[in-house]
Amino acid sequence: MHFDGRGGISVLELLVYIPLFVISVLICIRHGFKRSSGWVFTLLLCLIRLIGACCQLATYNSPSQGLFEAVFILSSVGLSPLLLATLGLLLRCVDSVKGTGNSPFRAIHFRLLQTLITAGLILSIVGGTSSFSSNGTYTVKPLSRVAIILYIIAYAAEVLLAVHTLLLAQASQGERILLLGVTAALPLILVRLIYSALGVIANLHTFSVFNGSVAAYAIMAVVPEIMVVAGYLLAGWKSDVARPAQSGRPSYYSPDAPANYNPRIGERML
User: How far apart are CA 179 and CA 32, in angstroms?
Assistant: First the structure.
């Protein structure tokens, strides 16, 4: 195979995501390697993009169906860590917000969101694996469409959570920076989601991750992901380190917890 535009994007991703990966590690060390912190998912996304870029570049020397499937799957699952990172950071914001005792959101809502996104990830992998025939022909599978629908539902719920937290609550200065960073990232995630929906649900060739337009892929998928990751890392660098929960406080999941108890949701959920 000859070196093409997707190879150039892979080189760009290596140049960008290697330093972002290092910064992600530092941010995770600073805030703690907890899935609830959200930043560990930015670390995961950086790792996925680095492996995907290496696989894409490897196809030019030894093209094989296995490598093409790996490139396609790694390109398709980026929405999952992006949404999980957003959910984790929103949980931390809700946890620090004053007066959340009257919030309509409960632990079960966050669990459902996590389940939806995780299910979308699994369906994306299974659907992507079965999208290639023995002769290398690519066909969008129903499982892949269901995965995008689950991502859309999860995204809509995260927007509702972000708007509610932003408008109806007051956070500390450090958490306000984090909340504004998440709010600014939501339109970029929407662009990434639209790209996947057009390519998978609408099955438009221009927006196909496998063999669609390189320009559309770069503008609507690669660039938004990089901007979101960079924004989350910047917010993580400027936000305060969450203090550990005090011992002896009632658990959010305990039936004995008061109805107006303000839980540290972010430390217990994901």
Answer: 19
Averaged over successive runs of 10 residues, the pLDDT of the chain (270 residues) comes to 88 97 93 76 95 94 86 90 93 67 70 94 90 78 93 95 77 72 95 95 89 93 96 89 47 37 43
Q: Counting Cβ atoms within 10 Å, is residue 214 exposed (0-12), middle (13-18) or buried (19+)?
A: middle
Phi, psi of 132 (to 5 degrees): -105, 130
Using a CB cutoff of 8 Å and minimum separation of 24, what contacts does 250-258 make? Answer: 252/107, 253/107
Q: Which amino acid is present at 70? A: A
* 161-169 long-range Cβ contacts below 8 angstroms, 24+ apart: 161/90, 161/94, 161/105, 162/90, 162/186, 164/103, 164/104, 164/105, 165/90, 165/93, 165/94, 165/97, 169/94, 169/97, 169/98, 169/99, 169/100, 169/103
> What's the pTM value of the predicted model, to 2 decimals?
0.85
Alpha-carbon span 237 to 240, nearest angstrom: 8
Are 64 and 16 within 8 A, CB to CB? no
C-alpha angle 113/117/120, rounded to 5°? Answer: 140
First-residue to last-residue Cα distance in the chain: 42
Residue 268: per-residue pLDDT:
44
> Structure tokens of 259?
């109805």
Q: Report angle CA 244, 247, 250 to the nearest 5 degrees.
A: 105
Buried b (16+ CB within 10 A) or exposed e, 148-168: bbbbbebbebbbebbebbbee
Between CA 41 and CA 38 the distance in angstroms is 6
Closest CA to 140 of 194, 196, 198, 201: 201
Sign of the C-alpha dihedral computed for residues 34, 35, 40 and 42 taken in this order: negative
Residue 244: the pLDDT is 55
